[in-house]
Write a sequence for this structure.
């Protein structure tokens, strides 16, 4: 199990900490098997776009109610922070936040001159000005590629400002070039929060359970009530004071194992808060396991069994009705790792055929080191294999090619901007930003209903397909979707043909490549 170390200012990246990858093509079962015996990442000969860790760190800090965030870099790098200000206000009603506060987002606006002479003095002045202007209870400083390249001592500037201003000033090292796995940005934010905000427990509060999540609806309030507990959400809509006392909770659960892998381990290893040994509750089988694991952790197994029985009695008939309408329908999933696995669970439970998936990265294991947290392995065990399983860092050219060939009945997406590719091909697409919407027994009914609506109301996308302009050429759509992924059979065959041609032309293999390849 990876060990956390809060003594260091920056978090160890996922590639080295838990061997995360962004390149794979095969089956879900094959990936699970490879993850257990050593997994090797594959690079691409062509890459269209990648995500940035800075935006993921912003996702976890911008949404803290009484904090401010400074992007230490060129002003353009702060553009990705403002989308979360919109998210904060739009989704506040899901969490019953009565008066969502205005977001406090700033930039040091590093210029070419600053990259020559350094931006530390500019950052120090910015921290003081932010404190004076909005008086936050904490300030987060997010480093960008420019700040990292010129080597600004961000940690020292923040420490000095913290001593001067009397509030936590947290350096978060999340430069985009630091890691090829953009979710390292989540870890970077949580590392900073754990180092500077979370305090040693003053008391044990058995009525509080930490929930590491994005911004989904407040379903955990209802679920925890029979156990005599309430949720402490980390971090969207949290306050600095609530984060400080996270160490006092009875347990930690997650809405997404990708998001909370690192912080869950930190709370357990460094603060003594046990993490629930179960993947998030998507699908009937996994929801059963989740409630039982929670009951056991809290010493209330009878409560868990009673709750499971009550929920099943109410929702299983409704799930069966939805399953009857969706059985045999074909679906494709594109999402981040753990939530992508969760949506595959939902498809399996509803009797739909998962014809493929484009998942943005893969963690062979999680920081907890527990097999029970591996949602993809659970999915394969509960519902069977998934073919055409692609790990990619949001390579849309591969997604479009795969969709064009597979032609599923519906595309399920987690991230905005991905659904349009299904629509352009005449494939109904479903995007639901509330990650809690499909959780639990009731979530299967909710999500199943939306799937039925999307599939049955396909007239718009069918008409759109007739008029949409596809930016990808006919040549590309005729290729194997994973032509540019190192190690694919088509790529290997092409490389072998090239070596053979060079050998025939030059009498020897060019570039020192042996004939065997």
């Amino acid at each position: 199990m990876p060990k956390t170390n809060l003594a260091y200012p920056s978090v160890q990246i996922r590639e080295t900490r838990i061997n995360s990858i962004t390149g794979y093509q095969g089956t879900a079962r094959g990936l699970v098997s490879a993850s257990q015996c050593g997994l090797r990442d594959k690079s691409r000969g062509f890459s269209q776009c990648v995500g940035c860790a800075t935006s993921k760190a912003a996702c976890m800090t911008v949404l803290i109610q009484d904090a401010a965030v400074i992007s230490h870099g060129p002003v353009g790098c702060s553009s990705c922070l403002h989308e979360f200000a919109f998210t904060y206000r739009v989704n506040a009603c899901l969490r019953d936040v009565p008066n969502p506060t205005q977001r406090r987002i700033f930039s040091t606006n590093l210029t070419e001159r600053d990259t020559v002479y350094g931006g530390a003095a500019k950052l120090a002045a910015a921290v003081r000005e932010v404190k004076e202007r909005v008086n936050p209870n904490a300030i987060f400083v997010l480093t960008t590629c420019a700040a990292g390249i010129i080597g600004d001592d961000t940690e020292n500037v923040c420490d000095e400002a913290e001593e001067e201003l009397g509030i936590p000033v947290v350096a978060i090292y999340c430069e985009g070039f630091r890691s090829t796995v953009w979710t390292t940005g989540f870890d970077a934010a949580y590392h900073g929060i754990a180092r500077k905000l979370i305090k040693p427990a003053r008391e044990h509060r058995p009525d509080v359970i930490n929930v590491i999540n994005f911004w989904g609806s407040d379903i955990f309030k209802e679920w925890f009530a029979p156990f005599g507990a309430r949720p402490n959400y980390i971090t969207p809509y949290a306050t600095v004071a609530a984060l400080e006392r996270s160490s006092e909770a009875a347990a930690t659960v997650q809405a997404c194992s990708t998001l909370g892998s690192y912080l869950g381990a930190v709370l357990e290893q460094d603060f003594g808060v046990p993490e629930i040994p179960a993947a998030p509750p998507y699908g009937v089988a996994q929801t059963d396991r989740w409630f039982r694991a929670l009951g056991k952790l809290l010493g209330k197994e009878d409560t868990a069994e009673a709750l499971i029985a009550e929920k099943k009695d109410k929702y299983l008939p409704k799930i069966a009705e939805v399953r009857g309408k969706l059985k045999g329908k074909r679906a494709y999933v594109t999402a981040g790792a753990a939530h992508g696995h969760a949506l595959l669970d939902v498809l399996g439970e509803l009797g739909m055929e998962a014809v493929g998936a484009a998942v943005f990265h893969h963690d062979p294991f999680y920081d907890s080191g527990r097999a029970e947290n591996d949602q993809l392995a659970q999915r394969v065990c509960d519902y069977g294999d998934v073919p055409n399983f692609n790990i990619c860092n949001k390579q849309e050219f591969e997604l479009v090619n795969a969709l064009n060939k597979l032609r599923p009945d519906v595309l399920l997406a987690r991230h905005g901007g991905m659904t349009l590719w299904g629509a352009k091909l005449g494939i109904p697409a479903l995007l639901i930003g509330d990650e809690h919407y499909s959780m639990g027994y009731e979530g299967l009914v909710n999500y199943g209903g939306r799937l039925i609506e999307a599939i049955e109301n396909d007239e718009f996308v069918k008409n759109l397909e007739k008029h949409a302009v596809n930016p990808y050429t006919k040549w590309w759509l005729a290729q194997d979707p994973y032509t540019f992924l190192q190690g694919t059979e088509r790529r290997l065959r092409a490389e072998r043909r090239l070596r053979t041609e060079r050998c025939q032309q030059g009498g020897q293999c060019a570039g020192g490549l042996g004939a065997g390849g």
Q: What stands out?
A: Residues 51-179 form a domain with the Rossmann fold fold (CATH 3.40.50.1980). The two ends are 37 Å apart (CA to CA). The longest strand covers residues 205-212.
